Structures are given as structure tokens and as C-alpha cells.
Amino acid sequence: MIMENAYRATNCMRMACLYVEDGRLKEAEQLVRDAKDLAEKLLEEIHAEDAAASFPAGRGTPHADPLR
What we know:
Elements: H1 2-21, H2 25-54
């Protein structure tokens, strides 16, 4: 899902650039907003995957670690 959201965000920005060149600023603005939303989802997925890799199953969670 990470790569899918990365591609979708990239495509939104590409289309936004084309729309700006054509003077279609409202459509470009919406595409930039869509790309921003996708980028935020992408960051959440990356952080979740990174956290899962940092705390393998059976080794606790960040909240259970008294040193954190």
C-alpha cells in the first residue's frame, strides 16, 4: 500500500503541473490537496511499518518499555 499511495501522490502532482500550464488553477489546487492527503497517509504507513519493524512480535511495545 505504501508504493500505491506514493505513485498516486506523484501522479496527482504531475497532473496538477499540467493543469497549471493550461491555466486550470482550480483543478490544480484540488489535485495538490489530494496529493497532500495521500502524502499524509503515506507518512502514517511508513511510521507504522517502521514501528512494527522496531518492535517484533513478542518483544513488547513502545508503551510497555519502561526505558522509553
